[in-house]
Design brief:
Length: 291
């Protein structure tokens, strides 16, 4: 039987105890050729491409790779690359606690639109007018890690926050043109609640109660902003977790159904087929044949 999907932490990539890895991408890729296979990270991960072609798959959604594209991943997402030709740029891996001791608001990063785990929001083309600025920030980060000075970690954190805010402003500009800030905040709160409770809370009315709004209000919000009802947002997150678990052949379909709190295997299979278009066994077979 195929081994379980690998889950990497920063230590396994650097061979030392650390909360941070910053590198130019070409040497990193050369040292970690195995990362073209599907894998998970236990840390935050972002890459800024300055040169490259091919594709990558994040949580089973394939996106093209191109110069001056930046992508962000949160812990637990499934990822693999399929590059063509020479690829270069910059990579940052950092642990969940890396900013927690630095910022009073422990979940500060969750407010950035690209750290939601939604693939469509986390792969961003940097416009020509910002490419020099973003490249300069990455060069500062490389310099700080290659020639560390007093308070180097705090300097790195402050440069990373400049980077995050600069990229976030791109997204906020486009979001704010069409979505009132209150609705955007409410939607993010809904998404965060789903992330914490998808295995136990399945109904929009349960989330509406936690948000102190009516189920109709929640449905209208999701339909207006996302184009799908609240129930579909919840079901999509459950289906995504099922996909992530199914690529681990060490788990049986029954065990996955139990982990996601389905009453029985047949109910889970019906749910999965309706959401994904194939049975769990078919999805597992097809996905594994691509590795």
């Amino acid at each position: 039987m195929k081994a379980a999907i690998p889950i990497y932490d920063i230590c396994s990539l650097t061979q030392r105890q650390d909360d941070l890895l910053i590198s130019r991408f070409a040497p990193y890729l050369k040292s970690h050729r195995n990362l073209h296979l599907a894998h998970k990270h236990s840390f935050y991960h972002l890459v800024f491409f300055t040169q490259g072609d091919g594709s990558q798959t994040i949580d089973f959604k394939q996106v093209p790779v191109k110069p001056f594209q930046i992508y962000f991943m949160i812990p637990g997402q499934v990822h693999n690359w399929a590059f063509r030709g020479k690829v270069d740029g910059y990579i940052i891996n950092f642990s969940v606690p890396f900013f927690q001791s630095f910022l009073l608001k422990a979940n500060y990063l969750e407010d950035f639109p690209f750290f939601t785990g939604i693939v469509a929001d986390s792969v961003i083309d940097v416009p020509a007018g910002m490419q020099q600025q973003i490249t300069g920030l990455f060069e500062q980060l490389i310099h700080e890690t290659e020639e560390p000075k007093p308070l180097a970690d705090d300097m790195v954190r402050s440069i990373m926050l400049q980077l995050f805010i600069a990229i976030a402003r791109l997204g906020f500009t486009s979001v704010n043109k069409t979505i009132p800030s209150y609705n955007y905040t409410l939607l993010r709160s809904f998404q965060k609640l789903i992330e914490k409770n998808y295995a136990t809370l399945r109904l929009p009315k349960q989330y509406a109660e936690l948000l102190y709004i009516t189920p109709n209000h929640l449905n209208a919000l999701c339909n207006d902003v996302l184009g799908i009802p609240a129930g579909e947002v919840i079901r999509n997150r459950i289906a995504l977790e099922a996909k992530r678990l199914l690529i681990n052949n060490d788990l049986t379909v029954q065990e996955i159904a139990n982990q996601l709190n389905f009453a029985d295997n047949s109910y889970f299979t019906r749910f999965f087929k309706k959401q994904v278009g194939s049975t769990p066994e078919e999805f597992r077979k097809t996905t594994n044949s691509h590795d």
